[in-house]
Amino acid sequence: MRKMIQKIVMIGAGNLATQLSLALHEHGIEILQVYSRTAESAKELAGKLDCPFTTSVRKIEKNADLYVFAVSDRALQEILDKWSVPIGNSVHTAGSIPADIFENYAENYGVFYPLQTFSKERKVDFSDIPVCLESDNFKLRTDLIELAGQISKSVHLINSEQRKQLHLAAVFTCNFTNHMYSIGQKLLAEKNVDYELLKPLILETAQKALQLDPVSAQTGPAVRFDEEIMNSHEKALKDSPVFQKLYRFVSESIYKMHKGK
Amino acid sequence: MRKMIQKIVMIGAGNLATQLSLALHEHGIEILQVYSRTAESAKELAGKLDCPFTTSVRKIEKNADLYVFAVSDRALQEILDKWSVPIGNSVHTAGSIPADIFENYAENYGVFYPLQTFSKERKVDFSDIPVCLESDNFKLRTDLIELAGQISKSVHLINSEQRKQLHLAAVFTCNFTNHMYSIGQKLLAEKNVDYELLKPLILETAQKALQLDPVSAQTGPAVRFDEEIMNSHEKALKDSPVFQKLYRFVSESIYKMHKGK
């Protein structure tokens, strides 16, 4: 079957742009060109994809089937403002930006939001990553579903409000969780205990949340309101007032959630 | 080689007692008897181990090589107070209780602290679980190392201060992390988005922290101080004041950690 979207220009060369364009490239989608404001990252990604790159918005190829804007929220508006001609089919990959940011710039537009944490140095398997799509245009929406289905088994039509909530939930689930790991690591370093010891716990906690409902799987001093332990932990954090405050707050939040408040 | 600790009495029948005694049993250590205050849980575990149980401290077998106290911190002292004769070799499994709680009760004592989150319904592979040991008694310490080495590849001598810090780090890394998952789930439910969508992110965030340093792997609006997104997220949480406060606090903590404060 002929692919509806065959040639893509990738706007951006960061973590997500890198992983997404590599996944598309591996599935036979041609990345026509990479644009990035910085020559170094544009060149690096273009090298991996064996395609041309540019750092000038005016030199972006005009004949792509799709323009994927995988840039920071701030950069997105800046790049759009530099565009002199109407853009073809366009999507962005942002969690919290409405699709209609493209309204005065592109005729057909939408959102292609892969819900995952990306690093340049860590290759991810796109096939499990939920891709959340949105477009008011029937033809583009259909084409995006086909495109996403080539790289992922998990394709979802999600409206802007739901996507924004997904982004918020992802901040708790990924960014805040990672900060908890960081605090754990820092606490152990203070007493010369190897961070390695925490790793089986990190993995099991995550795996448990894939199998059991996390609310009912909650363990620890806060959920059983073990004041003695909690007081002793807060005391142990007296030299780290930020962590101490955080300890109290998260414990209170756990307790309240389980009291059904 | 003759095992130095061959016969164990398990005091407790909760999540940890269950998983630990099953692992010991599988490695040829005899669980002589299970004690629990509630007949139901004692019977359930004894059934799995095919051994007798008791709910009376006075009826606990006297000839075990080791008494493992895998009970809540509060229950530990209560059970010790009921003991009428000196106890043989004794260990507890608690993160934040010093070894010398046994001082007036047992001649030789120590700590056998497996650093993991346990549920009765989820079987864990003990071989990867760090077992943190402590004992002032050379003979018992050696025997505990041998015992732990039979069920785990990760055996560590850890003093009480380090163990307490490990417990604190584990609260952040496991209990607080699980609460972040719970919040993510609740936020999605509000907008009728399936919790399934978060699962690949939960797993990847954990796996990333096993490979990369979590501090340098931190992503999200807080670490790049993206005020626009953070304000929009806080606004979105206006009907959940506890989560809103938590959002602000964790974001501040992330930002401060990365500013090196």
Question: What is this structure's SSE topology?
Answer:
2 copies of one chain form a homodimer.
Chain A lengths: L6 E5 L3 H12 L3 E6 L3 H11 L3 E2 L11 E4 L3 H10 L7 E3 L16 E6 L16 E4 L3 H14 L3 E3 L2 H31 L8 H13 L15 H10 L4 H18 L3
Parallel strand pairs in A: 1-2, 1-4, 2-3, 4-5, 5-6, 7-8
Antiparallel strand pairs in A: 6-7
Helix pairs in contact in A: 7-8
Briefly, what is this?
The structure is a homodimer of 261-residue chains. Chain A has 261 residues and is an alpha/beta fold. Chain A has eight helices and eight strands.
Q: Can you characterise this structure?
A:
Two copies of one chain form a homodimer. Chain A is α/β, with parallel strands linked by helices. Chain A has two domains: 152 residues, 3-Layer(aba) Sandwich (Rossmann fold); 96 residues, N-(1-d-carboxylethyl)-l-norvaline Dehydrogenase, domain 2, CATH 1.10.1040.20. Chain A is built from eight helices and eight strands; from the N terminus they run βαβαββαβββαβαααα. In chain A, strands 3-2-1-4-5-6-7-8 form an eight-stranded mixed beta sheet. In chain A, α4 links the parallel β7 and β8. The longest helix of chain A has 31 residues. Chain A is elongated and about 65 Å long. Chain A starts with 6 loop residues before the first strand and ends with a helix. The model of chain A has no long low-confidence stretch (mean pLDDT 94). At the A-B interface, α5, α6, α7 and α8 of A face α5, α6, α7 and α8 of B. Chains A, B: This is NADP oxidoreductase. Chains A, B: InterPro entries: 6-PGluconate_DH-like_C_sf, DUF2520, NAD(P)-bd_dom_sf, P5C_Rdtase_cat_N, TM1727-like_C_sf.
